[in-house]
Amino acid sequence: MKRYRESHDFYHCLCNLPVNVESELALKFFEFFNIGLPMTLLSGVLGQLRLTPEKRHRLFTEYLPWALKCGGGTSKPLISVYWEERWEQNVEDMKKELGVFDPPPAVWGRPLSEAAKARKKKLAAEKAAQERADLEAMVGTDISKATPS
Question: pLDDT tens across 46-77, in order?
């Protein structure tokens, strides 16, 4: 179990799966078919209840067949790989050696540029709120309730 926890993030890299709910569940199914840990199957079965119907459909029609074919068919058991000894190895070469191939491409909830804009807007709002709080502390009153003279 300890080795599984230590290796999980390497599986994300090796399988080219980002860290989001859909990809995490795909990886859990891959891990079950590859390693056979019951908790990974349980995570996949219960975790999919959090998904929207569209995402659940994609999980079962695209990612699950990939996990079964790749994790249970073509790849070697990854739990026995000494990742610590492979830092210098090319990932594509390692994938060929271990029989791993990429899953369907991940679909992001929103483009990264849109996420960056939303983050910038949020930070600006937080900064404005902090400046307002600082000003109110200096004046000693709630400036939103003050009326102009």
Answer: 999 989 999 999 999 999 998 999 888 878 88
Residue with tokens 């791993």: 100
Residue 86 one-letter amino acid? R
In tens, the pLDDT along 108-141 reads 665 667 767 888 888 899 999 999 888 888 887 6
Give the separation between CA 125 and CA 28, rounded to whole angstroms: 38
pTM of the model: 0.66
Task: Give the separation between CA 61 and CA 120, rounded to whole angstroms.
Answer: 36
CA-CA distance, 107 to 77, in Å (whole number)? 27
Torsion of CA 68, 70, 71, 77, to 10 degrees: 150
